[in-house]
Design goal:
single chain, 205 residues, alpha+beta, 60s Ribosomal Protein L30, Chain: A, six-stranded mixed sheet, 5 helices
Length: 205
């Protein structure tokens, strides 16, 4: 659709994401995250999961956090913000259900360069619809006005899930059969690397 891209073989680097540097940055951060609480409700250390796991006896609480990322550039180009809340919820719910947990609550975080009620209203509509679709309570959130740090809008959130420990899905017996699709949340499939993004720039008002 639209303008043909010269090179169809996209990589993370071409999409603007240096995976090696990102991995180094993550390792530098995680290398210091060694403290584990004592007492009840302790973290269940099960590597490779998309959500954090907290052991509370017969049940497990899950915590997943994610953001909309570069898809916000599409919303900005189209001046259409009522779907980004759905995307934000979906990314977190998707990570939550990977272990078999039921998402039950959600908090959002909006960073914006200046207060824009016409934008936050649309985001709110999308978040509310997403909450209904996922049967999740929106229990709180924050709007941070950061003109020195943000150009435009950034939206992220955190989902709380609940799981019967005996029914936890670890993935040990599941063969990988599906890869992430474009516009999910990896660098290679980001809008900056898609034909749609280039078309969106041309049709934006």
């Amino acid at each position: 659709m639209g303008t043909e891209m010269k090179d169809k073989e996209w990589t993370y680097a071409k999409a603007g994401v240096d995976i090696d540097r990102k991995s180094q940055a993550i390792s530098a951060l995680v290398g210091h995250l060694k403290y584990r609480r004592t007492g009840k409700a302790r973290m269940l250390d099960l590597p490779g999961q998309f959500t954090g796991l907290i052991d509370v006896g017969d049940h497990i609480l899950t915590l997943a956090t994610d953001g909309v990322g570069t898809k916000l550039l599409v919303a900005e180009a189209l001046n259409k913000w009522d779907t980004v809340g759905i995307d934000c919820m979906a990314m977190n719910v998707n990570d939550t259900i990977c272990v078999g947990a039921e998402p039950i609550a959600f908090v959002d975080y909006i960073a914006i360069d200046e207060p824009k009620p016409e934008i936050t209203e649309q985001i709110g509509k999308g978040l509310n619809l997403a909450a209904e679709m996922a049967n999740v309570d929106l229990v709180g959130g924050e709007v941070a006005v950061l003109p020195e740090m943000v150009r435009g809008v950034d939206l992220s959130g955190t989902a709380l899930g609940l799981l019967d420990k005996a029914k936890m899905v670890t993935g040990a017996d599941i063969e990988e059969w599906m890869r992430e699709t474009i516009f999910l949340h990896n660098g290679e499939g980001s809008p900056r690397a898609s034909e749609f993004w280039y078309d969106a720039l041309q049709i934006a008002p």
